[in-house]
Amino acid sequence: MAEPVFRVPTGIKLSKSDRKTLKKHLRSQHTLFRHEKLNLSDEVSQHIVVGNGGLGNNVRREELVNIFSKYGSVVDVLLKPRKPYAFVTFSTVQESVRAFQDIHGRTMKCPEELSLPNVTFYLSFVKEVPGFELSTSYLHPPGLILLEDMVSESYEHKLLECVKWENSEAETSEESANSQILKHRRVKHYGYEFIYGINNVDRDKPLNEGIPITCEELLTELVNSHHISCRPDQLTVNQYLPGQGIPPHIDTHSAFEDWIISLSLGSQVIMDFRHPDGRHLPVLVPQRSVLIMTGESRYVWTHGITPRKSDVVPVNALAQQQPRLNADGDRSESADNLADRLTMFQRNTRTSFTFRKVLRGPCKCKYPEQCDSKQKSSSKDVSNSQTKENKSSLPDTDKEAAMLEKLHVHEVYEEIADHFSDTRHKAWPKVAEFIRLQTPGSVMIDAGCGNGKYLGINPDIYKIGCDRSTRLCHICKDQNFEVLVSDILALPYRDNCCDVAISIAVIHHLSTWDRRVRALEEIVRILRPGGKALISVWAFEQELCKQKSNYLKESRIRNKHSQKKDGSVNTHRDDSLQEDMSGSCLEQRANSLEVHVNRTHFDKQDLLVPWHKKPTSSDEKCGTGEEMSTKGNHSKPVFHRFYHVFKDGELNELVQHIPGARVTEAYYDKGNWCVILEKVLES
Amino acid sequence: MKLITHNMLSSNIIKGVKNGYPLGIQATDVQVNEVDFNPDFVARIIPKLQWPILCQAAESIGHLGDLPKELISDFESNEEFLKKAHHILMEIEVKEGNLVCPETGRKFPISNGILNMLLNEDEV
Fold first, then answer.
1. CATH number, domain with residue B15
2. Which residues of B touch A445 (CB under 8 A)?
3. Which GO terms describe its biological process (chain B) (predicted)?
4. Which residue in A81, A641, A587, A629 sits closest to A312, CA to CA?
5. What are the residue ranges of helices labelled H in A406-544?
6. From A207, A276, A510, B61, which residue has the greatest number of CB atoms within 10 Å?
7. pLDDT, tens digit, 9 for 90 and up, residues B80-91
8. What are the backbone dihedrals phi and psi of residue A447, each rounded to the nearest 5 degrees, phi first?
9. Which residue has the higher pLDDT, A82 or A131?
């Protein structure tokens, strides 16, 4: 075979068109150099870069494969999102040279070779194909279920037929019409209208038109296969023309149940899922498939459709559904090569059926940051800061939450019990007052009694303490208090058995909203109707009305002390972060949760607070803040306790989610938020 | 664990258990400690109790004595009755043994007078 047939024709007389070709060729080489930092080879090779033959100018992979396969065995075709070039690799140099001679500078025939008119390919050889980062993955967000081929073509046809779109001219006059043309798409509602202004449905105003009977077959199948727990009662049909889309959104938590079903008819599309932490997963939703959003994918990730006319997808995502275009024996590419390759498809009119079940009562999800049921009125800034800060650090599942608390609450208290108890002699005055005010003969349960400092107040009532820590229970027992070991999420008492309950500085150790609610539900369960409970938690706000909490004030006093005593400046400060990190005994979660610097303001709501354990009894005098840890010392071990510190209004809101409980009093007490709640009398 | 506490306890926290009440008592060590008698306190506490359950519990560990199993109508003013009730409620203590869930038979240990009602992961 002849030596290189092609050379850039410099110094040779050129025709007008040749000169034009050369100019364009040089420009495409420049583009490539800019994008890939790649110099083109003067020598021929197996690898050809195809200028104007990329996803960036709407050339599809299949078209390239068809064009180039005429000249030999195409080993690989590489396309990149938004780039106006592609790489084609032949198995031999001879083949690539043949392709070069015929295609370079040629305007491709439309529609035989390319679906687009007037595209001229400019080719160059490259020594190697640049490394390639996969930007489109086929991972799905957690909780997302994709069921392909859920409806047949004939059923698809019937479903599309059953939607009666109102005439668009009549739209404005007919207020009752449930269909409307939104900016980006056509929409029609069944069962209940989804009102875009409030992003919710009006539960008291069901529509005359229920879910079409044609859908029954599909819904029955989904229920029978246990993909959904009950039948939906709301349907929204969206119709998207190519180029139309829907902005990223999370379906309002409180509006619907914990699953959402989306049936795709007419055209496949890429749906973009985005996590608040920045993760982006494009999901190819095939024609006639059913997408079920549950869990995180329903509650945390936004989903949307970018308004455009075509989508870029991994080759094998498409290959699963379509016979490969170049599947002609030895010229086809191997499956391995296809794994991380991209191509593009044109969108057609897509009609989606979104089935949902209208929710009665508040949302019970585990994702308060995204949940409208959990962030009302007063705590707008709470939700904002939570969304930004605390997302990735919090446990995702209840099991993970339990593990976090085991490591960073239960085991820590077991370890530090004696030292902890030594620092906690004095009852908080307002708690003591509450206990003293109870009528004689009352039964009081202290859920999370610690060393029992509230079990000795008011001899005229009967008190039972309980704590998760066996060692703290022993400390109580040594003082002759009645106490037992139990978990606040499972209080071992019969319903309605006590007149009073207190839970002081306990539920801030629970790591999810859901668990904090469950703890309060337990307390309310054991209270008799009319019974009262005092709940206190550590406050995010340690300075209110320019008044610093004791927790913050302690640091000043302490630092003065250490200066006086040993003359050195604060070598024993207990707020040294380095010390905390190196001395920690339980590090497993520490890298994801922030370690708080003792005696400073909180900047996060979920954090690990160091406890510096002292081997002997301390001379610590006790104040009223929750945290009264002792003076530091480099040799003593440090333990990290998990805390969720509460913002203004948050505790009240939590109580509002407990059926049968109402807040009778709420106050801030020296760095702690407190509520007194009452179990409402049964009507 | 005092018998007044036992009167409040339930194992309905175990998955699948409906009432979990009353818990059976298997006592290997029962102690009697003197506690100051406060008749007013006892009189006010009694209506909050499941009286038959208290008697049943006291009987099961052999400490019912001659306390009537039926709550007498004038208990509030009957000092002798209140004294007996006080003894059973406040002075008897199970130091070692188990409480037993009436529905599943699950045992909850009592050691050094401290009952442990923690559940395993699979019981919640």
1. 2.20.25.10
2. 8
3. rRNA (guanine-N7)-methylation; tRNA methylation
4. A81
5. 411-422, 429-436, 470-478, 513-526
6. A510
7. 999 999 999 999
8. -90, 105
9. A82
Beta-strand runs (E) in A433-590: 443-447, 462-467, 483-485, 498-504, 527-538, 543-544, 547-548
At CB < 8 Å, which residues of chain B contact A?
A: 1-2, 4-5, 8-13, 19-21, 38, 40-41, 43-45, 48, 108, 112-119, 121, 124
> Which structural domain range is residue B45 located in?
3-116
Residues of chain B with pLDDT under 50: none
A403 at interface of B, judged by CB pairs closer than 8 A: no
Which residues of A fall within a CB distance of 8 Å from B21? 494
Above 50 in pLDDT, residue A342?
A: yes
- Superfamily for the A16-126 domain: RRM (RNA recognition motif) domain (3.30.70.330)
* A619 C-beta neighbours (distance < 10 Å), count: 9
Q: A491 — contact with chain B (CB < 8 Å)?
A: yes
pLDDT at A345: 84
> In chain A, where does the domain assigned CATH 2.60.120.1520 lie?
137-313+343-356
Q: Do A511 and A606 meet the contact criterion of CB atoms below 8 Å apart?
A: yes
Give chain B positions within 8 Å (CB) of A477.
112-114
The domain A137-313+343-356 having CATH identifier 2.60.120.1520: the answer here is yes
A515 touches chain B (CB under 8 A): no
- B123 inside domain: no
Reported as a single tens digit per residue, the pLDDT across A441-462 is: 999 999 999 999 999 999 999 9
Going by pLDDT thresholds of 50, 70 and 90, the confidence category of residue A316 is low
Residue contact A486–B118, C-beta within 8 A: yes
Q: Is the full-model pTM beyond 0.90?
A: no
As a whole number of angstroms, the distance between CA A453 and CA A449 comes to: 8
Residues of B in contact with A470 (CB under 8 A): 114, 116
Q: Which CATH number fits domain A429-541+648-679: 3.40.50.150, 3.30.360.10, 3.40.50.2300, 3.90.230.10?
A: 3.40.50.150
> CB contact, 8 Å: A494 with chain B?
yes
Q: CA–CA separation, A292 vs A350, rounded Å?
A: 17
Q: How far is B122 from chain A (nearest CA, A)?
A: 11
- The verdict on A496 touching B (C-beta cutoff 8 Å) is no
- Predicted confidence at residue A635, as pLDDT, reads 52
Partner-chain contact B117 A468, CB within 8 Å? no
